[in-house]
Model the fold of this input.
Amino acid sequence: MSPTLDPEKLQAKIRQVFGYLEGALVSGMIYLGDVLGLYRALADDGPHTSESLAEKTGLDERWLREWLRGQAAAGILDYPGDGRFELSAEGAVVLADEGHPAFAAGGFGGLPAQMAVLERLPEAFRTGRGLPYDAFGPDGSRGIERSFAPWFRTLLVPLALPKLEGVVPKLEAGIEAADVGCGTGVALLEMAKAFPKSRFHGYEISSHALELAERNLREAGVENVAFHDARQEPLPAEPRFSFVTTFDCLHDMAHPQRVIRSIRRALDDDGTWFIADIKARESFEDNVEENPMAALMYGFSVLSCMSSALSEPGGLGLGTLGLHEGLARTLAEEAGFTRFRRCDIEHPMNAYYEARP
Ligand SMILES: C[S@@+](CC[C@H](N)C(=O)[O-])C[C@H]1O[C@@H](n2cnc3c(N)ncnc32)[C@H](O)[C@@H]1O
Done:
């Protein structure tokens, strides 16, 4: 016998589910607006009609008209009337200003690559085995880069590093430093530019990320950076570094305990390990109650973070919301770190920790 359905609740559920479909499609439109430079074109000068935007961008008017209407319907663009569409000052920062810490459109750059792995995930649910970051191809690596780069470029050196005990003077004087899980190397290159007397080493297992890192290095023109494929060239077994960072990658690692132990071995006894990871809570209940982005985070987890953390046999599978402060502290202590504290650095998504031997 089928259960009696409450018609109002049924309508509400349909609206909710279609709301997520709408979100997915509007996300696709944001991706297009970003890759086609439409937000930048709208941010440059006042309201545009589809005709004036077509003239400015050289794109087809009919396609632009449909995109503009959809963006206004979604509330992303303002519609003052008369076929004119406008990006507000706030919209311009979030969608068009790559140099601003609040820039978010870059996060949509990896969307097609991320969504494409959906076809492979039913198999992962059957076997339990996930996919490494390389499954997203070069666009996936570029998408991650563009999600995190605004913070690295604007706040890492001036805001975050000074919060660490004695690290900036050491970097100024000249030390060896490493970024593990360095992605395409943006954080490392920012530090290398700011501290030319220090040498910086990036460790990664994604060949796409490493390729882009080498390209970024050539473009940056600095000489105090080297990237290493951690699968062939792991962290040194002796204390060579005085400063090690891990940015949003421990929860993605299949064997974070091994990596943390190798970070401890590679760090000198007076060194500092700086950790950025998702602001996760201890329980699922707390994550859902306290994190307004919990559903987004669980989505990222299945698509990429947990998948990567299960991509090797025996992977721990922490996933996006799997590394809460208590666990980070325990893993650090188990690897031989005796001091661990949360840093006073505000970020909507991340928590920051300083661990010392
Ligand atoms: C979300 S990305 C973050 C990349 C970079 N830290 C950033 O903030 O842009 C996570 C990265 O961790 C890398 N990774 C996963 N397991 C790793 C391991 N065992 N050693 C080094 N890197 C690893 C992945 O390949 C991926 O590039």
Q: What stands out?
A: DSSP finds 15 helices and nine strands in the chain. The CA atoms of residues 72 and 301 lie 31 Å apart.
